[in-house]
Amino acid sequence: MIELVLAVAVLVLTGAVILLYAMVGELAARFEESVLGNSVRSFVRPLPDAPLNKSPKSWPAALTGISHARPGALLVFSTSCMSCERLAPLLPSAIESFPISDVALAIASPRRDLAESFVERHGLQLVRPWIDDGGKWLRDDVGVTTSPVCLIFDVGQLTAALSFSDFSILGDALLKTDLLPLERR
Amino acid sequence: MQATGLASIVVGCGVVFVAALLLNAGAGKLMSSKLAEVALHETLGLPRSAVVGIAVRGLAIAETLTAIGLVIDGMRTIAIVIASLLGFSFAVFGVIARLRSVTVACGCLGSIDTRPIGLRNAALGTVLALLFPLSIIAPPSLPTTLAACYVSIAAIILSVYLNRRFAVEPLLRRPAFGGGING
Asked: Residues 66..95 of B with a Cβ closer than 8 Å to A: which?
């Protein structure tokens, strides 16, 4: 009987310690939110396993401008991504204040008609997006399979791949890096 | 005979690990359901509403109760079944997130889990799901008192490991984006 009581006591203490740690985690997250203004819906983080310092095997004709830019940004959306649905309508205005002038948009979609409907629905015609059928080029030639992401190229070489949830935070993050020429930081 | 005994010990270790994991997952989601709500929204298209928040907290309670069930000898079989079902659903969730290229944090362990949801969750879910078939092959022989001690030790070690970002990182903090984002 005493063993059972001790076991319960140990479990209760363990629960308390774990809850305390979880509370510290939550407090730290809230502190980061308040100090950095980085809420759970607003983040910029490097894409794990992105093939950095490599050039895509080939470039589609529509993106040759980005392949020669120094630097050039390729924003990647997908028709099956919820965040992309939320970010897409904001893109035309966000692109005006984007810290990189050479920007292009690639839309990965399993079907071309879905991508065309995505472009029309969110008023992206003026951005002149390039549609990647089945995400084949992004997957096979670039090595990126997630969206939304911002790929930064320096004369065709991938120097950064950032997953993001907010254009302004993405812009701020780019300004703080050494990815941009000094005069633009 | 020896092989069966060894298998039983391995499954017993599995039970301890799963209970420790579920205790941490439950505590994390009880503290903060926000990241899990965002992950559910991005993966399954569920609206971010009070109902989903309550459901996440309900899942947290279910995980905690399942962990306690894994400790108590008389309740272990049903707890293993529930843990396996939870694991199967986590695995499916991870696969769907991967197929949809979701990049938001999983929130599976509350605010401390900021890595994107995906195949890692699917793999961990599969491990949980395997607990039931393995326990049929080699039922774990673990008295309640011993199980409570083992699970407590494992849960605290796991908790410290999961929270190392707050315990260790401030001491080794580097300037954000100092050497290039991916560098």
From this structure: 68, 71
Of residues A15, A50, A82, nearest to B23 (C-beta): A15
pLDDT tens profile A72-113 = 999 999 887 777 888 888 998 888 888 888 999 999 887 888
Q: Buried b / exposed e across B30-43, counting CB within 10 Å, b at 16+? A: bbbbbbbbbbbbbb
Residue A177 phi, psi (nearest 5): -100, 175
Amino acid of residue A62: A
User: pTM to 2 decimals?
Assistant: 0.63
Do A121 and A72 share a structural domain? Answer: yes
The answer to whether residue A36 scores a pLDDT higher than 80 is no
Of the partner residues A48, A80, A149, the one whose CB lies closest to the CB of residue B100? A80
**Domain range enclosing A150:** 44-184
Number of domains within chain A: 2
